[in-house]
Each structure stands twice: as C-alpha cells, then as structure tokens.
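From the methods appendix. Each design record in this collection lists the tokenized structure first, followed by the designed amino acid sequence. Records were kept in a plain field format so they could be parsed without special tools. The example shown here is representative of the layout used throughout.

RECORD:
FOLD TOKENS (629 positions):
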C-alpha cells in the first residue's frame, strides 16, 4: 500500500516539473512576441520588393515616399495611385542608394515616425510576463492546497467499494458447489422476504463466511445471491481497507456500511477478509495499528446495525485459520460455508455452464474433459474453455473441437500452481497413503467416522482423508487420541508396506508433525503416560497473547526431558507398528479401495464403510455408519 502512495507522490512531482517548464515556455513566447510581430506584419502586405522600388524611383514612377524610421519601412505612392493604394515596403539597414535615387529624381520625400508602439509592446510584454507568473503561481498554490485537502479527506472522499444495482448472476450460473448453494439459498429468502422470519421472531443472520481456495466461485456465489434476491451488491476487497494512513480503513468501513444501510435490503461482499481480519496482536514486534483499527471498526459496524436491517454481509477467504476469533462470534460471521474444488461431477456441471455460450463440437464429451482435469477450479475450467475457443478462432474453425480442448488443458495446467496428479505412479502412491489413513480410522472403533477420502489436489496437498468430529462431547479419552495417532500414521504405514521403506515420501510430513504434537501433549499435559499425572509444560503457542515468551523455561529437569522423549517415542512406535500390522492384514481390501478411488477420485464415508464392512464382516464399522448418518 505504501508503494502505491509513493507512486502517487512522484507522479505529482513529475507533473509539477512539467508545469514549471510549461511556464518557461510561456515566458519565452511572451518575450518573443515583441520583435517579430512587425516583421510578420510587413511581410504579408509586401507587394513591391526593394529592387523593384529602386527601379521605379529611377524610372520616375514614384509619386510620394514616406519613411517611418521607427519601423524602417516606407510607404510608397506610385504615379497614378491614390494615397489609399500606397504600398508599404521594408527597407534595408543601409538605404544610401535608395536615398540618393530619391534625391536625384526629386521624389516627394517625407519622414513620419509611426506612433511609438515599441513602448506599448514592451509594456504589454511585461504585463503578460507578470500575469503569467502570477497565474502560474496561483495555480501551483491551488494545486498543493488541493493535495493537502486530499490527504485530509482521504478516507471520506475515496469510496473504494463498488456497487452493482443488478449483478445479473443467478444460481444457475454457479455449478459444482451444490452444498454451498443449498446453504445459501436461505440467504436469498432472508433478503427477499425478511418478514417470513421476523414474524416468527427469528433473527436474521448478518454475516456469512465463504471459505475456499481461489477461483472456486466465492465471488460468483455472492453475486448470485444478490442476483436471485434482486438486491444491490456492494463489494470491496479486504486489501482495499488497508492503507498507509491510520484511520483510513476504518473510515472506509464506516462509509461502506452507511451506503449499504441507505440501500437496504442489500448484500455487502468483503473479499479477502483475511487482509483485515487477521488475529489482532499476532505479530511479534509490533502489530499493525491501521489494520487493527479497521478490524475494530468492522466489528463495531457488524454489531451496530440493527438486527433485521436488511443488510447481509458475506465475506470470503481462503485463510480461515488466520482470522480473528472475534470475527466469528455470534452476530458476526457466525455462519460458515465451505466452497471447495469441484469433484468430477462438479467439474462436468461447471463445464456445461461455460459451454452454454460457446460453440462446442457435437462429438466432444464434456465427461472426458472433466476426467482429465482433476484439481481444476471453476475459474480454471472457465479459462480452459475460453482458451479453447480462442484457439478455435485462430485455427479458423467453426466450433471448438478436441484438439483445442487438449491444448487448452495443457496451457491451463502449465499456469497452475500445483499440477494435478497425472503421473499414475505418483497418483497410486497418494491413493495408498490416503486410503491407509481412512482404512485404519474406519477399522478403529475409537476413531471419528470418515467423512470422505479424495484424490483431488487441494492447495498443496495431493489428496485428503477427513473425518466427522464428534462435537457433542468435548472430552477425549486416551484411546481416542491413540486412535487419531494411529490413523495419522496410517498413510506412511501404507506407503511403507506397499512400496517399501525406501520409497516412502515427504507426503507424510504433516501427519508426522501432528502425531508428535499429540503424543507430546499426552505425556506433558494430559498425564496419559507412565510419567504420571504432571503438567510438565505450560500452554505453548501463547506467543499471541504476548506474554513473556522469551523467558519461558521448561518446568522440568534434564532427566525428565529424556523420559518425556522416551514416552513420546514409545507411543508413536507402538501406533506405527499397529498401523503397519493392520495394513498387512487388509492388503487385498486396501488394493481394492485404491483402485476404486483412482477411478472415482472421491469416496464418501458411507460408501467407504460399506465396502470395509462387506470385506471384514465388522459390526464396529457399521455402527459408525449409524453415527455418521
Ligand atoms: P473466487 O471468488 O472463489 O476466487 P470467482 O467467483 O471469482 O472465484 O470465480 C472466477 C470465475 O471462475 C467466475 O467468474 C466464473 O466464470 C468461474 N467459476 C468459478 N467457480 C465457478 C462455478 N462453481 N461455476 C461456474 N463458474 C465458476
Ligand atoms: Mg473472488
Ligand atoms: Zn497423510
């Protein structure tokens, strides 16, 4: 931000210099005006040349000769001409020959100095100079005064948010994110028929948070809500709030909400809210005052506007983890909707949406395109079809056909951050890793039920297995934590068993960190090891609260430190051996599920449990099915 401001500054000074040289130019012109004005004057009226005049004098054709010494011109009346027809001629510096001829021929000779306009010209020039100087100065002064004013009313005058009266986007234009759409249809009703809710005494939520990676359609969804509800759409990006001057962001927030309230019902969309909404005071070595003020103002506004005022705020981020907790409290952004990378079917639906307004060859099967584009976001897919269309035009084709699609896929992949897994050996390894997690979690009665396992790359991960946490009980038992450790090690265990100890990859690094943390917590905080029920460590990670983190010392002796390490090691080793054992025992099942996952990309929790239950005849697995659904 400071960069853009500096740029403005230098622009201004450049303009200033330019102005100064303009001034110089004007002055030069003004000075020049004096001299050549006369020459110009005479030139155009010149009918006779000096030579001709001399000839005419000698041939006694000249009636009258009037010399003006001021301008060194002569007014010549020829014989048979009236005084009005007299011609003016510019003379030379030394006119001796002409004067002699005039005398010899007895021409009527007069000397009449013109009114002295040289004085007038000089005066005029000076006046002009003064005028230009004063005018120029005044302009400069006014400009700098303006600039100062600008600086003072920065936040007030420059509204950086956009308002669209009608976004023209409908839910039909957003595809492949059905769950998110379902959750958001309610917001449309809030905006359209608030009475429905207020009549029954319900409070309409004010804020929603859309969480998801870039290009998955968060902005599009927000626009679609406004479009469906037929309300104005106000949008601003979080980064726009953050300016160099303290207080500017806060005043922008105030402006935005004031405008929104004037236009209620309406929808306010704050993109990249993490730019302002980061945890306050999280930076060691000084926070960002400006950002904190902006965030505080945002919180105040969220609280301030009346319940059911008809303004709904939707914010988007791909970093929910860094958001200040205060933003997520009830009455603020308490509803969260995840917008994720689309799976195979989602991609197909998005391709269909974007193929609507393009001429696509009849023999193109969008299903095939969707299969070939794992990891593509909605934006990538839109881009893909657009690239293909451009290629088709370049090749002078009537419609988009497969060669264009193929080339466009390659182009988009090259431009993407993490390439989707195309290499099949790598993909198999990832599949074994993820299914390893999922299988061990599913077979362990103490583990949360699996929600989904997928090979769709997300950000920097190539696949994921995730679970439905049991939210009701805030309690965790020792065997539950051990189950989590075991399943977290399941990925590495599968790599190890299937591909051999030399082939294991760095893909497990996150898992291993998580495992170490859990095991350490069991030993040092939860009293769940043979070391006994001691709190051996205070709360770590409290740097954010700015307590004296530099002086924190461990609360135990060297000897205990060794014992802690030993306990942690024991827990992890045991869990790992268990995991490997389970993998070995279920090798056939693992292979089968991996094949299916590679084919399908995603396996839902229910389906996964059904497959496992069928193969193992396990009642435990089916019980989980009941919990999960
Ligand atoms: P985000 O805000 O999540 O970064 P956008 O909403 O700005 O993503 O998406 C950019 C463009 O990508 C959209 O304008 C649209 O053309 C396309 N797009 C993204 N997601 C979808 C989707 N789910 N359905 C249809 N088009 C999409
Ligand atoms: Mg966006
Ligand atoms: Zn893993």
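DESIGN:
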């Amino acid at each position: 931000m400071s960069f853009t401001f500096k740029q403005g500054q230098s622009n201004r000074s450049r303009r200033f210099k330019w102005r100064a040289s303009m001034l110089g130019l004007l002055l030069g012109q003004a000075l020049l005006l004096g001299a050549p004005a006369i020459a110009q004057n005479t030139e155009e009226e010149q009918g006779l040349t000096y030579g001709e005049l001399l000839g005419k004098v000698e041939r006694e054709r000249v009636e009258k000769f009037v010399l003006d010494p001021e301008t060194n011109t002569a007014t010549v009346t020829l014989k048979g001409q009236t005084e009005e027809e007299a011609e003016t001629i510019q003379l030379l510096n030394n006119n001796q020959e002409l004067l002699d001829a005039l005398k010899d021929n007895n021409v009527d000779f007069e000397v009449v100095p013109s009114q002295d306009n040289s004085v007038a010209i000089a005066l005029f020039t000076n006046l002009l100079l003064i005028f230009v100087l004063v005018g120029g100065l005044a302009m400069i002064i006014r400009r700098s005064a303006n600039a100062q004013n600008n600086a003072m009313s920065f936040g007030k005058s420059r509204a950086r948010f956009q308002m669209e009266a009608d976004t023209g986007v409908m839910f039909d234009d957003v595809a492949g994110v059905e769950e998110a759409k379902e959750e958001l249809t309610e917001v449309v009703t809030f905006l359209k028929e608030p009475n429905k809710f207020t009549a029954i005494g319900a409070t309409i939520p004010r804020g929603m948070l859309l969480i998801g990676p870039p290009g998955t359609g968060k902005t599009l969804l927000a626009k679609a809500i406004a479009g469906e509800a037929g309300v104005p759409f106000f949008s601003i990006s979080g980064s726009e709030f953050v300016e160099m001057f303290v207080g500017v962001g806060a005043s922008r927030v105030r402006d935005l909400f004031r405008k929104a309230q004037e236009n209620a019902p309406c929808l306010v969309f704050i993109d990249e809210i993490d730019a302002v909404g980061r945890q306050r005071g999280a930076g060691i070595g000084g926070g960002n005052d400006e950002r904190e003020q902006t965030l505080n103002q945002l919180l105040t506004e969220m609280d301030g506007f009346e319940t059911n005022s008809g303004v709904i705020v939707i914010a988007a981020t791909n970093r929910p983890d860094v958001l200040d907790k205060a933003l997520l409290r009830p009455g603020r952004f308490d509803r969260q909707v995840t917008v994720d990378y689309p799976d195979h079917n989602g991609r197909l639906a998005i391709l269909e949406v974007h193929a609507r307004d393009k001429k696509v060859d009849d023999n193109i099967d969008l299903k095939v395109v969707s299969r070939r584009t794992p990891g593509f976001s909605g934006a990538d897919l839109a881009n893909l079809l657009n690239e293909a269309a451009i290629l088709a035009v370049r090749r002078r084709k009537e419609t988009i056909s497969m060669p264009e699609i193929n080339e466009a896929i390659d182009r988009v992949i090259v431009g993407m951050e993490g390439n989707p897994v195309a290499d099949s050996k790598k993909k198999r390894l990832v599949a074994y890793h993820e299914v390893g997690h999922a299988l061990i979690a599913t077979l362990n009665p103490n583990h949360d039920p699996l929600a989904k396992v997928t090979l769709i790359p997300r950000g920097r991960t190539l696949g994921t297995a995730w679970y439905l946490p049991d939210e009701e009980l805030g309690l965790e038992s020792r065997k539950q934590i051990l189950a989590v450790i075991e399943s977290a090690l399941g990925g590495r265990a599968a790599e190890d068993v299937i591909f051999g100890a030399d082939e294991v990859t760095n893909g497990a690094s996150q898992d291993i960190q998580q495992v170490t943390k859990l095991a350490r917590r069991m030993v040092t905080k939860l009293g769940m090891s043979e070391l006994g029920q001691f709190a051996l460590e205070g709360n770590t990670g409290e740097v954010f609260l700015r307590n004296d983190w530099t002086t924190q010392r461990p609360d135990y002796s060297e000897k205990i430190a060794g014992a802690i390490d030993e306990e942690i090691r024991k827990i992890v080793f045991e869990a790992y051996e268990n995991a490997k054992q389970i993998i070995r025992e279920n090798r056939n099942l693992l292979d089968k599920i991996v094949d299916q996952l590679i084919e399908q990309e995603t396996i839902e929790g229910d389906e996964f449990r059904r497959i496992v239950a069928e193969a193992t005849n396990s009642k435990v697995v089916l019980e989980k099915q009941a919990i999960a659904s």
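APPENDIX NOTE: The chain has 24 helices and 13 strands.
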